[in-house]
Amino acid sequence: MNQALSKLGESIDSATSEGNLDALNNCLAQAKSINVENLSKVQEATLNYFIANIHYAKRYIKNEHLSWGWNQINLEEEIYHLRVAHKLIINEPIKNIQTDLSFRISTNLANALNYVGRFVEAIELWDFTIKQNPKFAMAIGNRAQAYFYYARYIDSTELRNYMLKASFQDFKKALKIGVEDHARASMIQWVNKLSDIAIWDNIHPSLSIIKTTESDLEVEYRKWCSLNRLTLNSSNDISWAKQGFYDDLVLPAITLPLENSSPLLPSPYSIFNQLKQEYVSARYLIFEAIQDNKHDVHFSDRGVVLFDALDYRLYRFWVEKLKMAFLGAHAIFDKIAYLINEYWQLHLPPKRIDFYKIWNIKGKAELAEPFSSSTNWPLRGLYWLSKDLYYQSSPTRSINPDAKILHDIRNHIAHKYLKVHDQFFFYPNDNPDIHPNERSYPISSSQFVAQTINLLKLTRSALIYLAAAVKHEEHHKKRNSNRGLTLPMMINLVEDDLRL
Questions:
Q1: Beta bridge mates, 367
Q2: 2-202 — its CATH code?
Q3: Cα gap 384→409, rounded to integer Å
């Protein structure tokens, strides 16, 4: 089978170099005809990597990479198959892989996500690659470029300089290690461009770390947030401080017509406030649930008479906390759609608003204005993030292989029931209720924790893209505005000790 895969890889390379679409389509048909049941995990990952490469080649031959189109089928297929490959190989020992396949999969996936505007997830993937292989120069160089563009959406001068300096250092490091020939000239240009901005060796920006109380629990909580990249702060995408960062992500200054002026806080800010509060509350519930799992049964669980179902199911307060956190985090997506409707003035009725429907013309799979003509990179990232979720009404497949799992977990928590089992006694293949269409959905405690954290990370990315997208729009408004007088509106912060 290794020989057949090698031959397929050679055929793909040959068709790509010749720009032969027919040959690439033949390779795709051949790849899809292979029975994956006969493959090892590494071989199956290789096959999916090859399929992704075919779609990558097709979009370049068709010049789709030069298009700003928000919907690109080849790109969706590329991301999907790279994700399948990454999932198959992520826990595989490097000695079993023998090549740089793992690093190429994660780097290519990061490149594709960054291209569509999902720079937060892309940076994390490049970080993963670099941690596994500190000398993988292409991941370092590509991360450097993402840092540069990410910095444009940061208001804090100190943090922006920190990210630009990180970009400069990464470009220099990648060139020193040695990058592929096609990328070298471009990276040299980036180093020169950044050198024109500042003498970075003389600039020493610092990150703002939150001051914790004397509570050991708070210190552990802040550290956990940072290490898992769950802080609503762009600092968390370039550093993982032990103390933790402030959740200082906010919407930028918004320009409104004077006739719309009101003494009240403009509604986009009020909505974003609520989104942030729901996010940080769900985040703490997850942390608390994980901590409670290490301790004895909570007193509220004592004296509750239950029958033993002989399936090692967990009836614990911390499990219910995790369920509440999962539902709360998932609900944020649809609430983001309300802010989009408000800020971009789509004038959709409340019943029409959710994170799936908000992007399209009613009743059509066609992008609505103002999205179809927008060059807003983080807004496009938010749209592509919506493709990670599973919708029963969607005619297309999600680009996330785990999308249905997240959907089924949410559905069973809200409408049926989720059976959380002790992870050491969980045998899903022996469970008659494993099919997600049944009234119950079985999952191990470790899987449930991991899926809940993954969902929260996705929610965090969505909030960052949302704030960055509004900043892009405000910059565009200011640059193209013919208005004369603008009046500032002072907005006060709510002090921690003065919350009503």
A1: 360
A2: 1.25.40.10
A3: 22
